[in-house]
Every structure is written in C-alpha cells, then in structure tokens.
Design brief:
By secondary structure, the protein is of the alpha/beta class. It is 43% helix and 17% strand. Strands 9-6-12-11-13-14 form a six-stranded mixed beta sheet. The chain has a three-stranded antiparallel beta sheet with strand order 1-3-2. The mean pLDDT is 93.
C-alpha cells in the first residue's frame, strides 16, 4: 500500500485523531489496507473502522515516516475548525492558496483563475474558489465568428469599428467575450440573424442583404448567448443539422431566446433519399415542437446534414421568403 498518497495519509490522520475511519470512495484502498492490519477493528457500524488503542504508537510511527509534517497540518486544520478528512484538506488547501493571491485584474481567464485558487488550471471553480477571486470575474474567453451586413458597426468604450469593412478584407470578423462583457453595442441595419451550426455552411452560404450570419459551434453557446442579448427585437433564426443533437441544440437555444425560429425549408425533404444518413433517434427525445420533416426522419431512423444546402440557390430564396414574413408580421402587429 502506498501510504504516501494524500488520500492514504489523510486516512491515517483521521484514524489517529478521531479513533474511527469511515469508508469513502477516494480512500477505498487505504481503508481496505487498514482493515487487514491489527491496528484496527470493525466498530459494528457499516463501513467504519476503529483504532485499537494498544496499536496507536504503530500508526504514529507510520505517519511520522510518510508524512513528517502531519503535526503542522493537523494544527492548521484545527485552527480553522476543519476535520482531518479529504473535504477538510481541500478547504484548507483552498484557503491557503487564497491567502497568497496577488492583486487580480477585473477579469481573469477561468484557467488562469483555477491555477491560482485551485490545484491546477483545469480544476473546477467551485463557489468557494470563485469567492476567493473577490471582485475579479472569471471568463471563458470564447469568441463568436460573424459575417456582418453592410453598415454594421461595433461600439465599445474604446471606440467604434465598421465590422463590414473588416469583413470585406478578412472575410469575417471575430468578437471576443470580453468585448461583449465590456458593453459592446451593435449599431446598424440587421434584418435578421442566422445562427449556423456547422463551419462549412457558415463560410459558404451566400451572403444575404442585411442578414447577420453567426457561427454557433454545437453546444459552445456561452459567447453566442451574450451576442444574442444585444440583438434586441431582431429576429433570430437557427440553421443546423437535422439529427438528435441538432434538436437538442435548438431546444437549448430556445431556452436563451424563446422566439428563436428554426430554418427547415420544405425542399430539404427532397434530399432525404439521396442524402439521408442512418442514425438512431433516442426514444426519450421530445419531438413534439419539431418540424414535420424532423419527425419523419426520426420515424425512418435517418439524419440530414445541413452542408448540402450551403450552396443550393433555394436556400437563399427560402431565407429571403422568411425575411419577408418577418416584415409582414412586424407590419401587422
């Protein structure tokens, strides 16, 4: 048994201090090893070992060998009212890291933040660790790729930039999450915003007058959600694959934007026999609010990718027809 692992050392310490040790998943190996040693006995309670007092000195000897600093650790735990358990150790560890933090900026990437207040950069930022950051905001620092219409301008406290002018040179523009968090405002003519799931379609779809094209890479919607908040009453349409994940993504996006439209043109059904892919549909997936084509695909066990529609001229025509619907609805309301 490797008694030098943190989980095993804490098991030894808890047994010494409390006289009992409960079985925990993180300490199963240590618990099983102690259960076979003459230092312990079963207490009669389920999954609990008790210390045999006559063998206490042997337990102390092992602790001295594998964890020479255990006395100082116990004193630090006791001073904070923490138990000698994995949870207590984690809280002590977090507290000691928080005490050594440098002055932090207003915003901090979540990986940087975790490296400062957690064991490593990919650790979870728990509520306790977030609290240690004080007023500093932990950001995901995603970005959203756009193909903007003519006349669309982004305004921040640092100035304004003509997004269409940038896109005319680069083909598209990317807006970082931090700019959105800092109060970026979009100004200019937007007839509608089209959220496009797959990158190829986002790049290859013919640009439509006064439409804003937004790449939504699957479930990575955190930054897109912040952008959509700034679109106000502009109609928002989603265009993605017709498969189970495509349905879930639409359902998720409607949680962010209840009036989201789903672009499923009628002519797409003509491609089912030629382009349909065999794929299972989960029985527990709610299809009640989906277009008829989606339900037909599910009944046949087929999926449809959106890529074949990227350069189909009927796609642009269908989107233009949808835009006219928006105008008619606005006029009648």
């Amino acid at each position: 048994m490797n008694w030098r692992s943190q989980a095993a050392r804490l098991a030894l310490l808890e047994l010494l201090v409390r006289g009992v040790l409960k079985r925990r998943r993180a300490q199963e190996s240590a618990w099983d090893a102690l259960d076979e040693l003459p230092w312990t006995r079963r207490t009669g309670r389920r999954d609990e070992l008790g210390l045999v007092e006559d063998r206490r000195h042997e337990l102390v000897a092992v602790l001295n060998r594998v964890w020479p600093d255990w006395g100082n650790v116990l004193a630090a735990l006791t001073a904070r009212g923490l138990a000698p358990t994995p949870d207590g150790w984690n809280e002590l560890d977090d507290a000691q890291r928080a005490e050594g933090l440098p002055q932090l900026p207003d915003r901090l990437n979540r990986r940087t933040a975790a490296a400062l207040v957690a064991p490593h950069s990919k650790a979870t930022l728990t509520d306790r660790r977030l609290a240690a950051l004080g007023d500093a905001e932990a950001t995901h620092d995603g970005s959203v790729r756009l193909r903007p219409p003519q006349g669309l301008v982004a305004i921040t406290p640092q100035g304004r930039v003509d997004l269409a002018a940038v896109a005319s040179v680069l083909g598209e523009v990317s807006i970082p999450e931090r700019a959105l968090n800092a109060g970026l405002v979009l100004e200019g003519p937007i007839r509608a915003a089209l959220l496009v799931e797959n990158l190829g379609v986002f790049c290859d779809l013919r640009m439509l007058e006064r439409w804003l094209l937004v790449h939504v890479p699957g479930w990575d919607t955190a930054t897109v959600a912040r952008l959509v908040e700034r679109l106000g009453h502009v109609p928002v349409v989603h265009f993605g694959d017709l498969d189970p994940n495509g349905v879930r993504i639409v359902q998720h996006l409607r949680g962010l934007r209840p009036d989201l439209r789903w672009f499923v043109p009628e002519f797409w059904g003509e491609l089912v026999d030629a382009k349909g892919l065999a794929g299972a549909w989960p029985e527990d997936l709610d299809l009640r609010a989906t277009p008829m084509l989606v339900r037909k695909l599910a009944s046949r066990g087929l999926w449809l990718e959106q890529e074949p529609l990227a350069v189909d001229p009927r796609t642009s025509a269908a989107l233009e027809a949808l835009a006219r619907e928006f105008i008619a609805e606005e006029t009648s309301s």
